[in-house]
Amino acid sequence: MDRFAKKTAEYLLQIKAIKLQPSNPFTWASGWKSPIYCDNRKTLSFPEVRSFISGSFAELIRELYPQAELIAGVATGAIAHGALVADKLNLPFVYARAEAKAHGLGNQIEGYYRPGQKTVIIEDLISTGGSSLKAFKALKESGCEPLGMAAIFTYEFKVASDVFASEGCRLDVLCRYSTLLETAAETGYLGQADVETLKQWRLNPSAWGK
User: Fold this and answer.
1) Which of 12, 70, 62 is nearest to 41 (CA)?
2) What is the pLDDT of residue 19?
3) Smallest Cα–Cα separation from 53: which of 9, 114, 107?
């Protein structure tokens, strides 16, 4: 949804939800070295930003999924975003974990839902897509009918697009990595040399910086 992309990128850069440090890279949980770190939880602290994001999601869902009956957030980063979207659309809400709880009721999906409900999944960030698709599969196996997933931001890794395609899960995003780089360059957040570094990183993130 290109009409949301640039404004989303501007907001993420403005509130420093996305940090770009090509000369001082971050280390991800996977061990990958990365010149970028995205923390979309920060968007919840800024009323204007979270309202724009939830409103954009709601507009996207009305347009692409008018038959939606249920909104599901992916735990934990998209629980709040999903609930805000469900509220705007006046739809019921659940959230899905990547794994079932090891205690209590052992639930993987929390909240009330009915088998067959047409569901749109909300995610905050797509990297390799693994944990997001675990939530997708959990909802499917529970009897829900996932129509697709909508995320705030994607790194546009090929591995993610491949696994989404293999699982038959449609993915729509408010902002892509390529749009973020264009916006960062246009606004002077990054110089052209840093932009080129970030482009190269995305081509082979597992080997970058080694």
Assistant:
1) 12
2) 87
3) 9
3-state SS assignment for residue 180: helix
Domain-wise residue ranges, the chain: 2-203
DSSP 3-state helix, strand, coil percentages of the chain (rounded to 5)? 45, 20, 35
Strands (E), the chain: 18-20, 26-27, 33-34, 36-38, 70-74, 93-96, 109-110, 118-126, 145-154, 171-176
Note the pLDDT tens digit of each residue in 98-124: 776 556 555 799 999 999 999 999 999
Q: Which pLDDT belongs to residue 5?
A: 96
Question: Which residue, 116, 178, 175, 183, is CA-closest to 151?
Answer: 175
Exposed, middle or buried, 24 (CB in 10 Å: 0-12/13-18/19+)? Answer: exposed
CATH for 2-203 (3.40.50.2020, 3.30.479.30, 3.40.50.300, 3.90.930.12) = 3.40.50.2020
The pTM for the full model equals 0.94
- CB count in 10 Å sphere of residue 7: 16
Whole-number Å distance between alpha carbons of 137 and 162:
16
How many CB atoms neighbour CB 183 within 10 A?
A: 20
